[in-house]
Amino acid sequence: MNDTPLLSVDSLTTTFETDGGTLTAVDGIDFDVREGETLCIVGESGSGKTVATESVTRLVKSPPGQVEGTVRFRGRDITEMSESELREIRGNNIAHIFQNPQDALNHCYTIGWQIAEAIQIHEPDVSDEAARDRAVDLLDRVGIANATARFDDYPHEFSGGQRQRVMIAMALATNPDLLIADEPTTALDVTVQAQILRLLDELQDEYGMSILFVTHDLGVVANVADRIVVMYAGKVMERGGVYDLFERPAHPYTQALMECLPGKGQGDGGIPGSLPDPLNPPDGCRFAPRCDHAVDACRTGDQPEEIEIGDGHRVSCVYYQSGYDESTVADESLGTGTSTATGGVGDD
Amino acid sequence: MTDPDEPLVSVRDLKKHYPIKEGILSRQVGAAKAVDGVSFDIYPGETLGLVGESGCGKSTAGSSIIRLEDATGGEVLFNGGGRAGRTRNDDGTHPNDVTRFDERELKAFRRDAQMIFQDPSSSFDPRMTVGNSVAELLQVHGMTDRDRRRRIVQNLLERVGLSADDYDRYPHEFSGGQKQRIALARALVLNPDFIVADEPVSALDVSIKAEILSLINDLQEEFGLSLLFISHDMSVIREVCDRVAVMYLGEIVEIGKTEQIFSDPAHPYTEALLSAIPNPDPRSTHEGIELKGTVPSPSDPPSGCRFHTRCHRVIQSEEFDLDQSAWRSVLNLRDRAIAREIDVESVREFVAAETDTDPESVPPDAVKAEIRAEFDLPEQLSDPEAERVLSDALDRMVDDDVEAATETLMEVFTTPCEETKPELLDHGDGHQSSCLRNEPDVGAEAVATASDD
Lengths: 348, 453
Hints:
heterodimer, A: alpha/beta, 4-stranded antiparallel β-sheet, 12 strands, 30% helix, B: alpha/beta, Rossmann fold, 8-stranded mixed β-sheet, 3-stranded antiparallel β-sheet, 16 helices, 39% helix, 16% strand, disordered C terminus
């Protein structure tokens, strides 16, 4: 595997000016997406996961938004780019798909026209004829039956799942290196969700692209992720390979999320309390006000530094600093650190 | 008090058809059969789950039962609120039939049965304090004492996990989960016997979802409620429901105790729904059953078993003994041919583009191979007779005689599933399903073919 990550995000901070003051949606996070892998950003609504991915391609409207930090794509800093350079990256190298395909498609044009347009914008030399052929081919690839005939249909003539397939076709039009998928299956039925996840997996094998996948659904994460970043209130709580996170969740917040899964953990279910006020976040660890294990040290200073507890597995929790007993936050009910701890990880 | 053996709600052959009108005279040209003959009982203190994909009619069933919409046919007997023990009238109608309630009875019914919706944000008036929104129901139903209304509502807000001071706050001051708690308080304020909850947690985050589900469970015990819980999410259903009814295209295909449905699903559709739940175990390599396509249109449902067009266990006609997935592919090809959705010309163009040749000079074999690939058909079917018919049909297709090809396919490849409508069969202990494979006369043979997949 290539050592330079495809996408490298460093101390990314996104703020919004509001009437109530400055709202910090994403607060100095970093993450990398490697070639060919799927990185999942997991978090509840309001955790900043969507803003973080939109900041990557500078889709955040400014003002009121303000993005700081560096975003390197193959070593080039996106934040320093001119609007025209950015446009090129956005279409050719990085493509976005969103939660609601009906909002992202234009009702007034046929879907074939929209895909062909996407091709021609990025490759002006392509003839109408060739663009059409490629659009049909793409529709066929994403599993739209009878693509030639459906080319001339309008978005309303497609079901929700088919529209998401069309969006994926459009995103693939320029053969991107990175696909940013923001809750692409949340608005769909479980059966259709299964179809779309399978499709993304096949396309990733075929095109070898990297996927940055944003979701709150841990069931989906377990299916698609290679690595995971857990976000809470604009900060990264924990990160690591998919097996580490699911089998040895280290941060109390990750553990609490896992316990929300039906059939896992016991107790009342849910995480008591709600996300902190983004205009006025608490001192110390953002999760401390809702954490069962919080001590005074959790409520002062900054979010704790991330500490490496395994290969690429890092956690931002004071209990893993020296002088604390990390077994305090070990969660037996999740069966952490048992027989599954050895083997398998990273060798696939 | 009600007799625990008598159901609180009895739904019998409930139908809700929406007319499809056309032309300037708005003549009815058909009907979308959203709910088409649904029957079930809900017992006191029980939660019945109603599950299915979008468009299966589960929400329409819920709103017809609570009479937010008028049913087209069937009856809904509601025995709560002191109506228990009433017997049928001489003309065969029932005095407890919600679909026949007059204004006065309906108002009383509105007190005893409540509904909770998916989106808590759109179900509150943004200009009214949440306390007043909840207390309004008490006022409408005749409680004139303002202070007493306030006391009742404040008490209830505390019981759903909010504070009494929240009475004077406005909806925008609450998060989605809190709004759903207020919606619960509003549903409970008139002390109903029965609540229809339509996707009450689908719009909520995982952490909040779990909280609201456990609150619903607690309140149900405390208030002795019966619930009809509508959801597309099998994992949520498993958490809260005592029994589950699985709906497909306006009909119930399987009903039974939650454990039975999850551990031993009898209908292939239930099986597919269960297998679509994302498994939160990254090591699971279980591929699952992939349901292709979406629910067909309810205005023209498939004949026989409505699920046969997507079923992975669709029964083979007696002559053949094919691999089950190949059989499914053959039927897919046939159905698409019948729908005139196979465009040989575009397949030819596609092959031409792939191989960089002229469409004219694409060999017929390449076109046939591409069609087989598109439908996941093997290069050769294991049954020689089936293979002969299939390749004959493909030959005709490539010769642009789609008509004849379709006819051949239709004549030879048939399934009992499209001819016979399966009955709901009892598997004991209230577990019923409607699948031909479970019927005694077809059963033996069908099980034999099903077991080798």
